[in-house]
Amino acid sequence: MTETVVSTPAADPGAPAPAPKRTRAPRAKAAPGRLRALDGLRLVAALMVAAYHYGGRGGSVADAWGSSPKVQFPTLHAYFSYGCLGVQVFFVISGFVICMSGWGRSLTSFVASRASRLLPAYWAAVILVTAVFALPVVAYEAVSPSDALVNLTMLQQPLGADRVLGVCWTLWVEVRFYALFAVCVVLPGVNRRRVLMFCAGWLLASALAQAAHEPLLELVLMPEYAPFFVGGVGLYLVHRDRRDAHAWALVAAGFLVGQHYAVRELWNAADPNAFAHRTTFGIVLVVALGFLAVAAVALGLLNRANWRWLTVAGALTYPFYLVHEHLGWVVIRALHRGLGVPSAATFVLTAAGMLLLAWLLHRYVEKPLTPLLRTVLSRSR
Fold first, then answer.
1. If DSSP codes are grouped into helix, strand and coil, which group holds residue 274?
2. pLDDT score of 305
3. At what angle do helices 36-55 and 280-298 cross, to 10 degrees?
4. pLDDT score of 274
5. Local structure of 15: helix, strand or coil
6. pTM above the 0.85 mark?
7. Is residue 381 very low, low, confident or very high in pLDDT (cuts 50, 70, 90)?
8. Residue 36 DSSP SS3
9. Are 41 and 100 in contact (CB under 8 A)?
10. What is the CB neighbour count within 10 angstroms for residue 173?
11. Which residues does 287 contact at the CB level (< 8 Å), separation at least 6?
């Protein structure tokens, strides 16, 4: 603690000056601690998506298993099919984290932070998956060299190039959210009022874009995903002030509109050929649990979950998310069809192997390159 010395003039010029009074300087506001429970929640969402990709859908993973995951997991496949909603949970967490990350930052600092966080592991994952799929012993076809190069820009979807990573469509959604938040909130300066107006305006504009069926507006405003980001931003405002009624209104609106889109996109009880029949109740329940989990973090209800390993879990989430699907096919095929490992053990060993690979990417790619890239991009000219 620091102290400042404040001198007061003597009332009588001839009298000796009184001893200087010592007053305590105002204590600086402590920086908020890391929300380790949020790191753990991110890993839970990533594992939900992995469960969906390994056992909750058909397609290429069925080729890896040698039969439909329905056969491999006769009961669990129906529950695994809800794992795709881990993406919506990710978007709620992203809204929370991006608002927290952008608060008090300049546009240059914000862009440098986001780019350095996303790009090193992403570049490594694109190169690694392309190289593995190019091996003669791997049964899956690699994309063309030209498309692989385009994938390094994260612009493969709008450019119509083949995707190297199956999950990269969610990164394209995230990048558009970052751009909207940067231009509308970070550039003019982040404050509570501006954040509230941005979220309310975005939610309303996205609904109007949906009603207008205008492709360009839908591309920019992302009606089906905006409510989840808005809900996450609202929960960060709640984290700052739990009595903020306007922030709670954003959270409620985000959930109510978000569950509508989730049900509309994922409810398939009427499809007799569906891999698994998700129910309306099940979809709404998973979305609600995602919002409630982030709300518990925002309100400090999970502050006791402050174990250091959760920070490691959070660090592994992004590289795990990038590599787990396509490289998981290769591992599943090798273990289950090549070595005859039982389905359950193959599932667990594949997820564990992808977590180990994620740790290697974090240790040898993200740790050295992220701060370097952030420093380079933060330099003002």
1. coil
2. 87
3. 160
4. 82
5. coil
6. yes
7. low
8. helix
9. no
10. 21
11. 85, 88, 255, 258, 259, 262
- What pLDDT, in 10s, does the model give residues 331-376? 999 999 999 999 999 999 999 999 999 999 999 999 999 999 999 9
203, 228 in Cβ contact below 8 A?
Answer: no
Split at pLDDT 50, 70, 90, the class of 277 is confident
Residue 283 structure tokens: 């979809």
Using CA atoms, how far apart are residues 96 and 91, in angstroms rounded to an integer? 9
35: confidence class by pLDDT, cuts 50, 70, 90: confident
Structure tokens at 150: 């385009």
- The least confident of 16-25, 66-75, 104-113, 248-257 is 16-25
Phi, then psi, of 351 in degrees rounded to 5: -60, -40
Taking the CA atoms of 175, 370, 192 and 254 in sequence, report the sign of the dihedral they define: positive
**Amino acid residing at 29:** K
| Segment 321-327 mean pLDDT | 96
Cβ-proximal residues to 88 (8 Å cutoff; 6+ apart), any chain: 225, 228, 258, 262, 287, 290
Measure Cα distances from 353 to 70, 107, 319, 361 in Å: 23, 38, 12, 12
Q: What is the CA radius of gyration of the chain?
A: 25
The H or E element containing residue 377 is: helix 367-378
Task: Name the band, by pLDDT with cuts 50, 70 and 90, for residue 21.
Answer: very low
DSSP 61-119: HHHHHTS-HHHH-TTHHHHHGGGGGHHHHHHHHHHHHHHHHHTT--HHHHHHHHHHHHH
Residues recorded for the chain: 381
**Is residue 322 helix, strand or coil?**
helix
- Residue 84's alpha-carbon distances to 48, 56, 88, 166, 170, in angstroms, are 7, 8, 8, 13, 12
**Is the dihedral angle over the CA atoms 113, 117, 122, 123 positive or is it negative?**
positive
CA distance 205 to 223: 8
- 1: Cβ contacts below 8 Å, ≥ 6 apart: 24, 25, 27
Using CA atoms, how far apart are residues 55 and 71, in angstroms rounded to an integer? 10
